[in-house]
């Protein structure tokens, strides 16, 4: 049986991954002994739609390309549950920055690793874009815009101003 301090250390270690899933930056308490903070975190959707669109191949491609650059210890790949964007899957989110990529395949992985992870500049041509129907240019999707779009079609009356401050 684990002690209370051991359970707290496990909780703090796992909060890093929970914070990433919620769109927050990785924060790990000093109580989490042995917890490793990585330079980047790559979240690959593992929901049913993305898995059927070969998200496991995307994970393998990230592992391969990161290893080629010697970054396998600096970048953590996390397969998540559904990210709610099934029509755009496989979806990948890179932290820090909460950069969303859509319809990722192994060829796009190479560009994401080379340009974003190694080069430090997000790969704009593969980033998730807001679709428009009025002919205006598509905007890069942000977490706030994504939440707004999801809630827009629900019966919830939500004041989005508090999301912008989060």
Would you mind describing this structure in some detail?
The chain is globular and about 60 Å long. The chain has helices at residues 4-21, 48-52, 55-68, 106-118, 143-152, 161-164, and strands at 40-45, 75-80, 92-95, 99-101, 129-130, 139-140. It is α+β, with helices and mostly antiparallel strands. It contains six helices and six strands, in the order αβααβββαββαα. The strands form two sheets. Strands 2-1-3-4 form a four-stranded mixed beta sheet, sandwiched between helices. Strands 5-6 form a two-stranded antiparallel sheet.
User: What fraction strand?
Assistant: 5-15%
For the secondary structure, the number of strands is: 6
- Backbone structural class: alpha+beta
Give the N-terminus to C-terminus distance in angstroms. 37 Å
Number of helices: 6
Strand order of the largest sheet: 2-1-3-4
Oligomer: single chain
H/E element string?
HEHHEEEHEEHH
Radius of gyration: 17 Å
Mean pLDDT across the residues is: 78
Largest sheet: 4 strands, mixed
Q: What is the 3D shape? A: globular
* Low-confidence segments: 26-33
Helix content: 25-40%
């Amino acid at each position: 049986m684990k002690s209370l301090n051991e359970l707290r250390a496990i909780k703090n270690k796992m909060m890093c991954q929970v914070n990433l899933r919620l769109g927050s930056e990785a924060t790990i308490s000093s109580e989490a002994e042995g917890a490793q903070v990585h330079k980047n975190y790559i979240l690959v959707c593992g929901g049913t739609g993305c898995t059927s669109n070969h998200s496991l191949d995307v994970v393998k491609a990230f592992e391969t390309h990161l290893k080629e650059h010697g970054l396998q210890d600096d970048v953590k790949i996390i397969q998540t549950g559904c990210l709610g964007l099934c029509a755009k899957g496989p979806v990948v989110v890179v932290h820090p920055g909460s950069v969303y990529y859509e319809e990722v395949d192994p060829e796009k992985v190479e560009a994401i690793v080379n340009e974003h992870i190694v080069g430090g500049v997000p790969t704009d041509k593969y980033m998730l874009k807001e679709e428009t129907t009025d002919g205006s240019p598509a905007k890069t999707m942000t977490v706030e815009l994504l939440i707004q779009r999801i809630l827009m079609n629900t019966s919830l009356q939500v004041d989005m101003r508090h999301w912008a401050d989060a």
